[in-house]
Amino acid sequence: MWRLARSAVAAHPGSLVGTLLALVAAAALLSAGGVLVESGLRTGPSVDGGPDGATLVALASSYLGTALVVVVLVVAATVVLAMRPRQRDLAVLRAVGATHGQVRRLVTAELLLLTAVAGPVGSVAGLVAARWTTPLLVDASLVPAGFTPTVSPWPALSAVLVLGAVAVVAGRLAARDTLRLPPTAALRSTLVEPREVGRVRRTAALGTAVLGLVAAGSPLVVPGTVGGATAATSAMLLVGAAALAGPLLVQRVLASAGTGARRSPVTRLALAATRGSARRLTAVVVPLATVVAVGTVQTSTGEAVHDAAVQQLTAGISADLVVTAPDGLDDAGLAAVSGAPGVTGTTPVATVPARVRTDDEDVPGLESLSWESAALRVLAEGTDPAAYDPDVVDGSLAALDEPGTVAVSTDARLLSGAGTGETVAVRVGGGGTTELRVAAVYDRGLGFGDYTVGTATTAALGVETSADTVLVDTEDAAATTAALDGAGLEATTTVAYVASATSADAAEQRLSTVLLLALLAFVLLGAGNALVMSTAGRRDELRLLGRIGATRPQLVRMAFVESLLVAVAAVAIGTLAVVPAVLGTSFGLLGAAVPALDVTAYGVLLGLVLVVSVAGTVPTVAARVARP
Questions:
Q1: Alpha carbon of 398 to those of 345, 380, 406, 443, 608: distances in Å?
Q2: Alpha-helix residue ranges (DSSP H) falling in 276-397
Q3: What is the reported pTM?
């Protein structure tokens, strides 16, 4: 069986090389994410409440989860496309007496051979790429200085196993149409592409689509960042449903795309070719649609989070001016602020780094993952709720004047399960664990942080605090600003403070951009690879068209029109998949407001889809058509 599998791989280098390339890129992406997860697991907790291994694990796990879904979609589409030229070979084997089990084992052996070659090569590249992210992680304060990624064989081995499983399952599903027919019927079916979608596949597509819509509606039940994040996952579920129902969906989209544009013979020929190859084009359209869905939902979710933070801070701060002092203000500085001309009231706020327990169950050897780094907002005794309003929904901030109390956001309450009257375990300043009683729950966690305590609590813990932000009420903003500037203090308007407090740090922005570009680069590579493989497999069709009179310029123009139709189908499916996610995320974070959509990123992604579609189709057709 293995000898026959090696012969089959050698006999179909054109289609299988593309699969090999996709597997190498997928292995690199998964192993790089695995390295970061393992590094976070092996990194001990921070002593001073700063960044630690748990922070890295949270980031890498989130990214790896998205990458895994994308890898499954792209690799499965590539394998299905690569197996198309093998359908006739498998049908011949069935006709000469091969059993179902033997054909399945042959397909499994072929794909395992490819994975055995591509997996280690891509994994090594991923190990190297993971080390390149170290400066970005350190600059973004996600890991401590001096951090070094852990290099071990486990991420590489995991990537190979995952890819092997995905490739084998996709290959067996691709061979299923051949195996379920009698041998002679299977041979005839290789001449004409089947247009029907099986009942199992239809059911799976419907179930996945329902799950996607349910995920998009999760903010109706779970508001806040948790509901918004859950809604964002609906885009991938809906793309998965489109992949399962691909032939039917692509046929309908292409039919609507070609309406009113049938006079040109070249256009008519392109429409006929795309409609007759909906199953083949599904393997091309799905990766391109994934580009639109992944890129749009990632950037739009970030924009929704930013808009929500701005909305919450703007609504919760009523001060006229805000004085910021990153190094903290002593008593003399606070007196200078309160004594400035026109000042009628001040609200000092301090920040203390801490670690908060979010999971009551400890996994042996991974206890640090039960704790997360957090910033405790510290309010002075008697803070005016009107000046500092995080929108309390249960309890009262006045209760923070009692030692050993804490107020938590609704998101923190949902994740930890600790509501009013229950306790939250914290560690401050490298000290031991302290149980703080939840005295209030507030809704504006994105703007005001997830945890707030009073100065009575920090004093009881023996932690010294100094205000880094002072909210100032004044009757003469100009005079107050001038006086504070003269005293060497920085005073800004509330609008300017909100913009500064909610703007993404440059280092964090660079890291986010690099991670997103890596993901999109993989999907674009898979899409371009699928386009080349799909077009290269049409050599006989192009030759036949040439023999019956089609000229080389006509065939090239036909390929151009086809590529435009493919891009339109991908954009339509990707947009339909991402709309529920954008609406759900925006509703969960912003309420009944205009949905947050990164129009610039969406436009760039549409351009990329168009360029990749044309570049992957037209040059390949031109190379396959003989010059006159």
A1: 18, 10, 11, 16, 54
A2: 278-316, 331-338
A3: 0.81
Cα–Cα distance for residue pair 4/262, rounded to 1 Å: 47
Q: Identify whether the C-beta of residue 133 lies closer than 8 Å to the C-beta of residue 514.
A: yes
Q: What angle do CA 53, 54, 57 make, to 5 degrees?
A: 90
DSSP string, 7-59: HHHHH-HHHHHHHHHHHHHHHHHHHHHHHHHHHHHHSPPPSSS-S-HHHHHHH
Read off the pLDDT of residues 205-230 as tens digits, 9 standing for 90 and up. 888 889 988 988 888 777 777 777 78
pLDDT at 628: 45
Mapping DSSP onto H, E and C, the string for 69-120 reads HHHHHHHHHHHHHHHHHHHHHHHHHHHCCCCHHHHHHHHHHHHHHHHHHHHH
The yes-or-no verdict on residue 48 having pLDDT over 60 is no
| Strand-pair category, 371-379 with 451-454 | parallel
Domain positions in the chain are 1-192, 343-474
Residues 6+ apart with CB under 8 A from 46: 52, 144, 355, 373
Given a contact cutoff of 8 angstroms between Cβ atoms, the answer to whether 287 and 613 are in contact is no
Strands (E), 475-608: 490-493
Most confident of 94-103, 121-130, 268-277, 546-555: 121-130
Query: Which range (57-66, 352-361, 439-448) has the least confidence?
Result: 352-361
Average pLDDT over residues 172-181: 70
Crossing angle (nearest 10°) for helices 234-244 and 246-257: 90
Beta partners for 454? 379
What is the distance between the alpha carbons of residues 440 and 410, in angstroms, rounded to a whole number? 10
What is the identity of the amino acid at 582? V
* Cα–Cα distance, 494 to 486 (Å, whole number): 20
